[in-house]
Structures are given as C-alpha cells and as structure tokens.
Specification:
Structural class: mainly alpha
Strand content: under 5%
Number of strands: 0
Helix content: over 70%
Largest sheet: none
C-alpha cells in the first residue's frame, strides 16, 4: 500500500466512525424512550412516545434522553468506521471487475461491507 492509500483509508475510517456516531446521537432520545417502553418501566409504560420524552426530560433533565449514549459511541465508532472503509475497498474492487462506476458496483460494495460487519463485529 502506498502512503496515499493509507491516508485515504485513515480518512475513510474517521469519516465512517464520526458519521456513525452522529447518526446514533441524533436518534439517541428515541432509542432511550424505546428501551424504557420495551422494558415496561413503571414510570413510562402507560405513556406514548411523545409523552415519554417529556417525562424523561422532567424527571431526569434534557441529558436524561442521552443516558447510555457514550456506551453506544464506543460500540458504533469502530462499526461505522470499518463498514465505511470496507465499502470503499469493495467499491474499488467492484469497479475493477465491472470496469465502470455503476449502481451495481455500489450495491455489491455495500452488500459485501454490510455482510462483513455483521459477520465479524
């Protein structure tokens, strides 16, 4: 591997990890409420999703919606990073096989990267 390839891979690794963390952080409040409702928490089981969000903010403050998000970031950063790096590598391989940039190449790359992550992570 050349230093340019290593640099590109490192950039893709960071981009994938940060993108995964941003995506999970955006949905963290809904994820927290989902877990509370699934666990039949006595304080929230009779409430709707919107009411549960309001109740969490009242009982635990705004940051209560993000409880457990740090643990999720520890799990998601490597997952997103490896998936994005894998996608980029598989896309280059698919382009070399097919000889052109196409939806099929991207579909193959995404499928292989997703399958790899699900199998190994």
């Amino acid at each position: 591997m050349t230093s340019q390839e290593v640099s590109d891979m490192f950039k893709a690794f960071l981009a994938g990890g940060v993108a995964g963390c941003c995506a999970k952080t955006m949905i963290a409040p809904l994820d927290r409420v989902k877990i509370l409702l699934q666990a039949q928490n006595e304080h929230y089981r009779h409430l709707s999703v919107a009411s549960s969000i309001t109740a969490v903010v009242k009982k635990e403050g705004f940051w209560g919606l993000y409880k457990g998000n740090a643990a999720m970031m520890i799990r998601i950063f490597p997952y997103g990073a490896i998936q994005f790096v894998s996608y980029e590598r598989y896309k280059k391989m698919a382009l070399s096989w097919l000889g052109q940039d196409s939806h099929v190449a991207r579909l193959m790359a995404g499928s292989l990267a997703g399958g790899q992550n699900e199998r190994f992570l």
